[in-house]
Design brief:
four-stranded mixed β-sheet; 25 strands; five-stranded mixed β-sheet; 26% helix; globular; Dipeptide-binding Protein, domain 3; Dipeptide-binding Protein, domain 1; alpha+beta; D-Maltodextrin-Binding Protein, domain 2
Length: 515
């Protein structure tokens, strides 16, 4: 896109974001790379949806600025004497956005809906530790565990949904609630506020901890350059007050800015390149190992994303499960070629073949992730050196999720897993895992994951996760890439900013827009 086209796009977005009214000054505007897939918390499976859900819904507890568990919809809680359950006392007088009262029955319903076999969503495993949930009057809930849970309070960060909005506990992704959510959070959806290009929220007048911001406007803006231009207008009515993720190349623009401050924040997320094990060639471990040896992660990271940690397994370096004993193999093109030769893949011109099979793969990518195209070109050039051809297919966000995660029609893909407090990788790598979209099946991995899930000893669980890290580093069901150092750009007119890891907007009620 030309510079003139970018300026035109930025101007059009400025007109859309800033209406030039007095009310607009009290509206917090921000862009997202991708459209939220759903505003129903169970199905909020991309980060744009997670951030929006954080503004609309509440959880029983939340993690405050100090990193402590704090009161949300629950005002107090007490573990059972035998550590086998927990009792929550709920906040009285809370109303849903439609005026209905919030009660213990809503908490019971949320858990039962999450555990209903017909409610199918990626984070279902977060509810497996709950054996039984019981309402004790209007404002008391007892939750019994299936096994002892360390730091049990941290398991209750999930959002509560209203019982009266559904006809039963079997909830579908297609439910109208996904576009017409009713929460108890600090903001509610404005009438007609959900569209393909934007989502508009207004302050919840009944909220127990009222926000200092009047309205929130999210605009789908996949072009990063347009986002940056809008942020440069942050000090005036036409502009945005934050950009969630600043590409490293744009950070110098704001290092000495009079209008924007750089806010670093930690994320428990990591990038990966996934191999479809339904493709017989990629199901061969030597092929995956050779491809991993050919890809220079440090070069790709520095050129396209900035600073971060190169990873060897499915955990970030801040995780208690990261195995620092696993070495990071150096790029070795000659060794990669030899591994393929030994596995029977012979060079035939620019591509390697074994019989009639070619190392020629479709690489499917979400075109709304701005960095993907540049990263792909780098990966493509590096793999070409060992006789592996990858062909790009760029699809929009909704189609990408359907094609890759639902229909599983791909050979390779590039994406990010984001976690809350701890990386639970059981759903990703167990043969029966709900997010094992690559079709990976390894008996040793299954045994390790099953044993870890059943143990009551946290130290043993931690050790087993480190063993899993080592095993997956060797097996390479994914090629584990990196975790990033993240910077958000926020207007200096926004005060009291604290960005919550993963959720981003948990403390948004305290944010304030200066005149």
């Amino acid at each position: 896109m030309s510079h003139r086209s970018l300026r035109r796009l930025a101007l059009a977005l400025c007109l859309l974001f800033g209406a030039g009214t007095a009310q607009a000054q009290q509206t917090f505007h921000y862009p997202e790379d991708t459209r939220p897939t759903s505003l129903l918390p169970f199905f909020a499976e991309d980060m744009s949806a997670v951030r929006m859900v954080e503004l609309i819904f509440d959880s029983l507890v939340f993690v405050n600025k100090r990193g402590d568990i704090d009161k949300g919809l629950a005002t107090s809680w007490k573990l059972d004497d035998d550590q086998g359950g927990i009792k929550f006392v709920l906040r009285e007088g809370v109303k849903w956005h439609d005026g209905e009262p919030f009660t213990a029955e809503d908490v019971v319903f949320t858990i039962q809906a999450a555990q209903d076999s017909k409610t199918i969503f990626n984070a279902k495993s977060k509810f497996e530790f709950i054996r039984e949930v019981t309402a004790e009057g209007q404002y008391g809930v007892h939750i019994a565990f299936g096994r002892p849970i360390p730091d049990a309070e941290k398991r209750f960060l999930f959002k509560i949904i209203p019982k009266h909005a559904f006809t039963g506990t079997a909830i579908s992704r297609k439910d109208k609630f996904a576009r017409e959510p009713v929460g108890t959070g600090p903001f509610r959806l404005k009438k007609g506020g959900f569209s393909l290009r934007s989502i508009a929220l207004e302050q919840n007048p009944d909220y127990w901890n009222a926000s200092k911001v009047g309205e929130v406007q999210m605009q789908h803006t996949p072009d990063k350059s347009a986002q940056i231009n809008l942020l440069q207008y942050s000090g005036v009515k036409a502009g945005v007050q934050a950009v969630i993720f600043l590409p490293p190349k744009n950070i110098p623009l704001f290092e000495n800015s009079d209008s924007v401050v750089l806010e670093p924040y930690h994320t428990v997320s990591w990038w990966y390149m996934a191999f479809s094990h339904d493709n017989k060639s990629l199901a061969e471990t030597p092929v995956r190992q050779a491809m991993a040896l050919a890809i220079d992660r440090e070069e790709l990271l520095e050129a396209h994303l900035g600073k971060g940690d190169i990873l060897t397994g499915p955990f970030t370096e801040s995780s208690p499960f990261y195995n620092f004993q696993v070495e990071k193999p150096a790029v070795d093109i000659e060794r990669a070629k030899q591994i393929l030769e030994d596995a029977g893949w012979k060079a035939k011109g620019d591509v390697r073949m074994k019989g009639k099979s070619k190392l020629d793969f479709e690489f499917v990518m979400d075109k709304e992730l701005a960095s993907n195209q540049a990263l792909f070109l780098g990966i493509q050039a590096q793999l070409k050196k060992i006789g592996v051809t990858v062909r790009p297919t760029y699809v929009d966000h909704a189609r990408y999720r359907d094609q890759v995660f639902t229909r599983r029609k791909f050979d390779l893909t590039l994406n990010i897993w984001s976690f809350e407090e701890v990386e639970d990788v059981y759903p990703l790598f167990h043969s029966k895992g709900v997010m094992n979209f690559i079709g990976y099946n390894n008996a040793d991995v299954d045994t390790l994951l099953d044993t870890a899930r059943a143990t009551k000893d946290y130290k043993k669980y931690k050790e087993m996760m480190k063993q899993l890290h080592a095993l997956l580093a060797k097996e390479l069901p994914y090629f584990f890439l990196w975790s990033l150092d993240i910077y958000s750009g926020v207007s200096k007119k926004v005060k009291n900013v604290y960005i919550q890891p993963f959720y981003y907007f948990t403390s948004f009620a305290e944010w304030e827009l200066a005149p």
